[in-house]
Write a structure and sequence with these properties.
The complex is a heterodimer. By secondary structure, chain A is an alpha+beta fold. Chain A has 12 helices and 13 strands. Among the domains of chain A are: 114 residues, no CATH class; 169 residues, no CATH class. Chain B has one domain. Helix content of chain B is 82%, strand content 0%. Chain B has 9 helices and no strands. In chain B, helix 2 crosses helix 4. The longest helix of chain B has 38 residues. Chain B starts with a helix and ends with a helix. The relative contact order of chain B is 0.16. Classes of the chains: A alpha+beta, B mainly alpha. At the A-B interface, helix 1 of A face helix 3, helix 4, helix 5, helix 6 and helix 7 of B.
Chain lengths: 574, 171
């Protein structure tokens, strides 16, 4: 037996085992700390740092101190900083590789705290951030109309003028009509025709034969000749009347053409100047970018938290090629199913500038379908510094993955606003110097669809003069807002998380509209005057030439009148 | 590399029984092929300490098989995944999955399963194979190798001084 077994080996194994345990006890804190930092950084896309992790075996628990989560968009700031986290772990389940935290207390949660060092990490993917993408979209869609008077010459270079088009049409019509008249004159009874009539008259007068037969022949001939002359005169008269009608028509068209520059000026002004009607949703234009920024920030964080609310189920389908050395973890049916990670109850306390908001979050797990219960949260605070009441509650229900939804409601009552920038639009900076605001928010996300509303009611508003002189529109808006003490702004967000519309309505619309419409009207009048002047100068020569060209029809008038006179003269002689 | 070759020569030329060296290599294969920080490797360590196994051989084998495992990693994962998803084994895996000890073992990971199954399957054949090879080496090659010009050259080289330092003396 001794040939195969060495008993001192047992002692060696015990020593090895003890050393392994001591090593684990000694280094477990560091391993936990590094694991949390690595996993957190990967999930957030910016540095997640932990000052200290303290793992205790009996009872099994973990205490985390100063957890800093960098804001990926502002690496010199922490999106969240948590002073202390105390977790009590279920030991038996921990051995089964399940992190079940029965109770967790999170205290000293602060938002937007400054960092000493940048928390940026190299981005692995070059995919455009959805928040940035949506902001760019909002900017493109809701640009503030420009209130500057435009360069008239550059506008006219782009625009087609109906005045010039009408002048060209008249000119072409006149030339065609003159050519037609020339042709028509050739076909009408002319001097030669009437000369022949005169000759016929002479022949009739001289007559042939004698007596009564001659007289009757002359009478018949004269009657026929008179009939022919009258017929010819009628033809010429008709042509002259047509000519006179045409001239009258041209006179009217030229009169209209001389009025066309005014119509052109008005039409172009309407196109390029901001109309008072176009100021319908000024609050949307002013507050829109800032609202969109808040909404998109919320959506970005929702995307980041989504994997922790519901794990993507892969079923039995073979997953993508695993990382080398990692392998694929296959899951089997459990007799008493439990999620891999579950925080049954988290007592959270948020340290905001206004005071502390505290509450409970239940059932934090990416496997709600296994747990059979949704995540719920309810946090509130009362009588804080500059805030009477705050409450945020909701549920993230992914128990049935196909019907999962997220619902949240929040209210801030009696919030003492101080120096709050409410406009994200650099052209019109609007800062609320002080006011008392109530805000109610409700959000509903089902799948990729979002349906949310925010209602902001403000009393005792006092707007700051900051940025007042930056532009004409800014001055007009500030002047309009100076008389406003209470207002409400409501926003609805509808669409998908990727592609949604933020619609903003406010009773400030009328106040801003009235304040800005005077400026708009003045600007429009100036623009119209400039346009009128420029178009008139551009078309005057052509119009004058056309007027002169109208006198070219006089030649035809004279010619036709002459022929009528000649024909009438022959009839007179008879 | 030189140190490793010197160690191998020392082990093969030592007084240790061939089966002790073969067993060490086979245990090293399990510990080397499978992820090092696995529960079953605690049992492997227990075995190599309690059984009369050549420890130097184990350490050398561990280094070699860990390297081979890195190359064979995709093969282990594929085999392990096939076994874990085989419907006729589903009942067995489900029972094991519900036992705390086996969850600690992380058997449901494709690499752990694949590498463990392969190393256990190869354990006995490789034991006899290594045994055979060592016996043959000692019978036919040891004396001949000692006399070769190559060994004479080696003895005058850096390799020999390294070998001397790990063996603490002559052959």
């Amino acid at each position: 037996m001794k040939k195969f077994i060495r008993l001192p080996g047992l002692v060696a194994f015990l020593i090895f085992f003890i050393l392994l345990t001591v090593f684990s006890l000694f280094f477990v804190d560091g391993i936990v700390e590094k694991t949390i930092e690595k996993a957190g950084t990967k999930a957030v896309g910016a540095k997640v740092e932990l000052a200290d992790a303290d793992f205790s075996f009996i009872p099994t628990g973990l205490k985390l101190t100063t957890l800093q989560v960098t804001d990926p968009e502002a690496p010199m700031k922490n999106a969240v900083e948590i002073a202390d986290m105390d977790l009590s772990l279920d030991t038996l389940n921990l051995l089964r590789r399940k992190v079940i935290i029965n109770e967790m207390s999170v205290t000293g949660v602060k938002f937007n705290t400054a960092r000493k060092k940048s928390g940026a990490v190299k981005k692995l993917s070059k995919t455009k951030d959805p928040e940035k993408k949506a902001l760019e979209k909002a900017k493109k869609k809701k640009a503030i109309p420009s209130f500057d008077i435009k360069d008239v010459k550059s506008i006219l270079a782009k625009e087609k003028l109906t005045t010039i088009e009408e002048i060209n049409r008249i000119k072409a019509d006149m030339e065609k009509d003159k050519a037609d008249l020339k042709k028509q004159l050739k076909n009408l009874p002319d001097k030669k025709t009437f000369k022949e009539h005169k000759k016929r008259y002479k022949e009739i007068k001289e007559g042939s034969g004698n007596g009564i037969g001659k007289f009757l022949g002359q009478l018949g001939g004269a009657y026929e000749l008179k009939k022919d002359i009258k017929k010819d005169i009628k033809k010429v008269k008709k042509a002259r009347n047509d000519l006179r009608d045409k001239v009258k028509e041209y006179e009217q068209r030229l009169k209209d053409a001389s009025q066309a520059p005014l119509k052109d000026a008005k039409r172009i002004k309407d196109k390029y100047a901001v109309s008072p009607r176009g100021l319908g949703n000024m609050t949307g234009l002013i507050f829109g970018p800032e609202y969109s920024k808040w909404v998109n920030k919320g959506i970005t964080w929702f995307h980041k938290l989504k994997p922790y609310l519901a794990r993507e189920k892969t079923e039995k389908e073979k997953p993508a090629e695993p990382e080398r050395g990692k392998g694929i973890t296959v899951r089997f049916k459990e007799h008493t199913p439990l999620p891999d990670l579950l925080i049954r109850k988290a007592a959270v306390s948020l340290d905001l500038d206004v005071g502390t908001i505290a509450g409970i979050i239940n059932n934090i797990t990416p496997d709600q379908d296994i747990l059979g219960q949704p995540l719920t949260f309810n946090l509130s605070g009362e009588k804080m510094k500059g805030l009477n009441e705050a409450e945020i509650k909701g549920t993230c229900n992914h128990v049935v993955p196909e019907q999962s939804f997220n619902k949240a409601q929040a209210k801030l009552i009696g919030y003492n606003v101080k120096d709050l920038s409410v406009s994200g639009n650099p052209e019109i900076p609007v800062v609320l110097k002080n006011a008392i605001a109530d805000m109610r928010l409700s959000a509903f996300i089902k799948g990729e669809d979002i349906d949310s509303s925010i209602l902001l009611s403000v009393k005792g508003a006092n707007f700051s003069d900051k940025g007042k002189g930056s532009s004409q529109i800014a001055r007009a808006v500030h002047s309009a807002l100076s008389g406003v003490s209470s207002f409400s702004v409501s926003a609805t967000i509808k669409g998908t998380l990727e592609n949604h519309d933020v619609q903003i309505k406010s009773d400030l619309d009328n106040a801003i509209k009235n304040g800005v419409s005077d400026l708009v009207k003045k600007q429009a009048v100036v623009l119209e005057e400039k346009l009128k002047k420029e178009i008139l100068a551009k078309t005057k020569d052509d119009l004058d030439k056309l007027k002169n060209s109208l006198s070219g029809f006089d030649v035809f008038e004279k010619e036709l009148s002459g022929r009528i006179k000649e024909g009438s003269g022959i009839i007179g002689m008879m | 590399m030189l140190t490793m070759l010197a160690r191998l020569l020392k082990i093969l030329n030592s007084e240790a029984e061939p089966h002790q060296i073969s067993l060490a290599f086979c245990f090293a294969m399990i510990a080397g092929f499978t992820p090092l920080f696995s529960l079953h490797n605690l049992l492997v360590i227990f075995c190599i300490l309690i059984l009369r196994v050549n420890l130097s051989g184990f350490l050398l084998g561990l280094a070699v098989f860990s390297g081979v495992a890195y190359i064979l990693d995709p093969v282990f994962s594929a085999i392990g995944y096939s076994l874990l998803t085989a419907s006729f084994l589903d009942g067995l895996w489900t029972s094991l999955y519900n036992m705390t000890l086996f969850r600690l073992e992380n058997f449901n990971n494709s690499i752990v399963m694949g590498s463990l199954v392969i190393s256990i399957l190869l354990f006995v054949p490789f034991y006899f194979l290594f045994n055979n090879l060592i016996n043959k080496y000692r019978e036919h090659f040891l004396a001949w190798i000692e006399k070769t010009k190559l060994v004479a050259l080696l003895k005058s080289s850096k390799l020999y001084s390294v070998y001397q330092s790990v063996s603490g003396g002559g052959v």
